[in-house]
User: Fold this.
Amino acid sequence: MTNINNDTLIKSAKIKVSQGKTDVNKGLVFSIQSYSVHDGPGMRTTVFMNGCPLKCGWCCNPEGLHHKQIMLHSNVKCKTCGACIEACPKGAVDLLDEKLRFDRSKCDECSTMECADVCLNEGISIAGIEYSIDELMSRFQRERHFWGAKGGVTFSGGEPLAQKEFILPLLKKCKDAYINTCVETTGCVDSDYFLEVLRYIDWVFMDLKHMDLQKHKELTGVDNHLILKNIKLLAQTPWWNGFIVPRIPIIPGCNDDVNNLRATAKFVKDIGLEVINILPFHRLGESKYRQLGREYSFIEQNSPSAEHMNNLKEIIQSEGIICFVGHDTPF
Assistant:
């Protein structure tokens, strides 16, 4: 689930969620990317939704892991004017060696974010905007003539299925409007709900980060029991005629060993699927961790080489599975 363009990290006070809680009739979205060519077939509008049950240390969208709005501070844009120090009612901001410091234990619990109101240089931004279904549908209708015959809307995150009360009626609206829908999901949701929501989805990218239960838990904070159960259910559900693409984010030293790749390929083949997409690790989200005041544990991790990715592709294909590397797919 990639997102480089953060065009909706807006600091305006107009977007604040009342009392820090999301209206169940609205969804919390931290970015919307138009003209996307990497998140499903054709040209697409990709909606990145807040909230995720996993806590992957390499996540490139750490601002989307939260089920609420979160504040980001950019040292690059900040002019150190000090307006946020005076505006903060919690005393969470101070100045040391001509640099602003934020007490994140207070900032992360803040629901009013007065600091963003007074920042005139976009040094402080808020990730997470409430949208109604009608607001998103209006945007989709405006952009659909750019999608082409194969395009549509992709819901990503975070975990787009985490906001159950919002995403389900939104997907129904998309289906009624003949909009092609795709989700990029962890699959770590209730199985009955998973099958219900898939009635309104045409295309699924689903992560299989590791086949070993304990190793998966070490890497993501949860085991893979529910994830494997759900992708198997989906693959073997006779009434669903959508397309499923299992994805493996390749994290060198974590899940790129031969045994894991062979086990994943065999599992995918056994449940009746034919394709795996492997995505190379990258550090494009590194700056977001700094803006969130958090340590990025993969700062020293390099991206796997093209040669290594091709070797992994050959291992997977030796198990009788078609394998695509990165976003270079025929979709």
Q: What stands out?
A: Confidence is low (pLDDT under 50) at residues 2-16. The radius of gyration is 20 Å. The longest strand covers residues 26-36. The chain is about 30% helix and 20% strand.
